[in-house]
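Data card: per-record layout.
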Amino acid sequence: MTYRERPAVLPAGAVLWTRTIAADDASRPVLPDGCTDLIWSDGDPTARLFVAGPDTRAHLPAAPRGSRYTGIRFAPGTGPAVLGVPAHELRDLRVPLDALWSAAEVRRLMERMALAYEDGGDGGDGGRGSDLEGPGVGRVLEAVAAERLRAADPPDPVLAAVVAGLRGGRAVAVVADAVGLSARQLHRRSLVAFGYGPKTLARVLRLNRALEAARGGTPYAEVAAAVGYADQAHLAREVRAFTGLPLGRLIGRPRPPSAAG
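The structure for this 261-residue chain is written out next.
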């Protein structure tokens, strides 16, 4: 697998990435991360633009070897403002963009993408149009996301605090109290913004913190204690619940980077 990424200029917290599917990618699951992606594929011309919703389980790419993708991954809570739909409507789904936006808007974007694909040059993975720094499709995705975000309603002011609190390991009840919401209100807003309730988001964010630490060489027992699991067995159960794989099979691989496929 060839993969590159960089922070997007806008929206804040977004990441622009490119990926080429390799022969062994069928065994490399894309892990839940609380994010939503807008993705361009240079494969099937009838499905070049699609959205990957927030996952609650690992997703295995179905694309053939050599397929190339460029995407923009929105930070938790940002995707609905750009895409125009509540996150829970996209949960665990891959949806063609023309199912969400008007035909005219998608057609205009496709035209911009086609021009960028021709002009983008070599993205470093052997394919045109997958660059992140030049005038290619990555820049178009970044630009259209920023345009839609500027035209959207202002973001829910509590979202950043909710993500920060949950990412920091605070209990859901504590986070709800800190942002002035009841548990029911927080759950309702979380479904719209993140695709699932705050407890699931907290588990997803904790899982990603744990895997980052484990890949850095920290012993599993220390990882479990540091990120808030009861013990190493609890960590192992959560990894298997979200990915279907034992912890040892995930560690030592490159971080599954995107929702492509």
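Known properties of this structure: Residues 121-130, 253-258 have pLDDT under 50 and may be disordered. The first strand starts at residue 2 and ends at 7.

See the next section for split statistics.
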